[in-house]
Every structure is written in C-alpha cells, then in structure tokens.
Design brief:
CATH superfamily: Vaccinia Virus protein VP39
Number of strands: 8
Number of domains: 1
Order of helices and strands: HHHEHEHEHEHEHEEHE
Strand content: 15-25%
Largest sheet: 8 strands, mixed
Bound molecules: S-adenosylmethionine
Length: about 260
C-alpha cells in the first residue's frame, strides 16, 4: 500500500493535478509554436501531405470526405486557424468556400502567408465568438454550413458559446469538434482544461438537449487511426442532416 498517497490531503492533490494540467497545456502550446516555426522554415507555403490537415488523421479525413460527398454542404467555417493546415486541406479537397478565424495575430499572419494564392479561403483575425456572431448577420445563415470547431488552447474555452450561436442561428449545419473525448475509446486524445472544462459530452449536453442535436463519434477505433489520434464529435440538428450522418459508415451514434 502507498501510505504517502493517503497522507497527501485532497486539496493539495487537486492543486498538484491542476498544475500538471497547466504544464501539459503549456507544453502543447510550445509545441504548437515550434511546429509553426518549422513549417515556415521548411515549407513557407502550404503543401498538402498525409500528415497535414485534421491532425494527420486518415480516418478523420475520411469522415470529412464522406460528409462533403453525401450532405448538401455549401460552405465551411473553421474556428482556430492556427497555421492553416486544415483550412487549406478543406478548401482544396471540398472545393467549397472556407472562412476561418484566429485569435493569435502571429498565427493569423503565418496562415495568411502560407495560404496566399489558395482559392476560396478567407482568413480573419478575431475571437471565434465575435466571428460567428458576425456571420449570423450575413447570407451564410441561409446556407448549409460545415463548422469545424478547433479554437481551443487557452483557459478561456469558447466551445459552448460557439455551439449555442450556431444552433440558434443556422437551420442546416453540421458541427465537428476536434480534441473531443470519445467516451468509450480511451485511445483517442482529448483536451482537458480543468475545473470541469473537459471537451466531452457533459460540456455540450445542455446545447444538445436545447437544440435537439444528434451526436456521432468516429466509427474507427483509435488504434486504427493515424496521426495525432485526437477524438472528435460530429453534431447536426435532428431530421434530414442527422439522418444522412447516420448512414455514413465512418460515424456511429455517440453514447
Ligand atoms: C488546435 S489549434 C487549431 C488547429 C487548426 N484548426 C488545424 O487543424 O491545423 C487551436 C487554435 O485556436 C486558436 N484559438 C484559441 N482560442 C481562440 C478563440 N477564442 N478564437 C479564435 N481562435 C482561438 C489558437 O490560437 C490556436 O491557433
């Protein structure tokens, strides 16, 4: 028996776990900065590749391809551009217009340089909530939109508000959330910001119930996925779009 474990008071243990989580997040951010720098040194322009876009995940790319091929998507919106890898991947493989927002001015500037010349891409330096709010006042609300929600890295987590804004203003939409916990497959990585801010179903259950959303997980097991093996969830309003998602072999109902 580990006696020391029982001697550490609960609050101290919790503080240790919180600090560890913050260090993990910091490490991830530093890795993101290093990768951005490497990308600029090696490939200052976007070059497609198996390991580029959707975290280099083969099955995730298949889910995206299936959605584009089988659902009436007219436009794509991404939150969290970073250096534009998934932005460019989505624009080139779907041939749909893609607009993406980024909070960090340095990443936004890098993405603009890397993606200059790629058609149908619009990049904006903005917080995801203001960006989505702005889109609700234009013609895009009438369109069937695929939203890729990937604006998370910091303690301020915009996800719940993003889902709320989308579901409250769009009639036809599909939402894919990256870095999401696949409840029954621990092999998939996910983000956890502490204090109940885990990217998992409980965080969006209220929005799912309020807006009558259907939720799907990847059908492929994490062990068969490639790249960073980040989990995801795909949402759509019940009815036509959810019905079409349920027909895709790359997805399964989320439990
Ligand atoms: C995981 S990265 C995005 C990766 C990118 N979507 C891709 O697939 O290559 C997260 C990005 O979201 C940005 N971000 C974080 N919070 C944000 C917010 N509130 N609004 C917009 N961007 C945000 C971060 O600066 C970071 O560049």
């Amino acid at each position: 028996m580990n006696i020391a474990r029982h001697l550490i008071p609960g609050p101290v243990k919790q503080r240790y776990l919180d600090i560890k989580k913050r260090l993990d997040r910091l490490e991830l951010t530093v890795r993101g900065l290093e990768t951005a720098l490497d990308a600029m040194l090696v490939n200052p322009k976007y070059v497609p590749g198996d390991d580029i876009g959707f975290n280099g995940q083969r099955h995730r790319k298949k889910i995206f391809g299936d959605i584009i091929a089988n659902l009436p998507v007219e436009a794509i919106v991404e939150t969290g551009t970073w250096i534009g890898n998934t932005t460019a991947y989505m624009a080139q493989t779907s041939e749909k217009p893609v607009c993406s927002c980024e909070l960090n001015a340095r990443f936004h500037a890098i993405a603009k340089l890397r993606l200059a010349g790629i058609e149908r891409v619009q990049l904006e330096l903005n917080d995801s909530r203001s960006f989505l709010q702005k889109l609700t006042t234009g013609g895009l609300v009438e369109k069937c939109v695929f939203f890729y929600l990937d604006a998370h890295w910091y303690d301020d987590l915009p996800l719940a508000k993003e889902v709320d804004l989308i579901a409250a203003h769009w009639k036809r939409f599909i939402v894919m959330i990256d870095d999401f916990k696949v409840s029954d497959d621990p092999g998939y990585e996910f983000d956890d910001y502490g204090n109940g801010k885990t990217l998992a179903l409980p965080l969006i259950n209220e929005a799912i119930a309020a807006h009558q959303l259907a939720a799907f997980f990847p059908a492929a097991a994490a062990r068969d996925e490639t790249g960073a093996r980040r989990g995801c969830v795909v949402l759509a309003s019940r009815g036509e779009l959810a019905g079409k998602l349920s027909q895709l072999t790359s997805l399964r109902p989320a439990k």
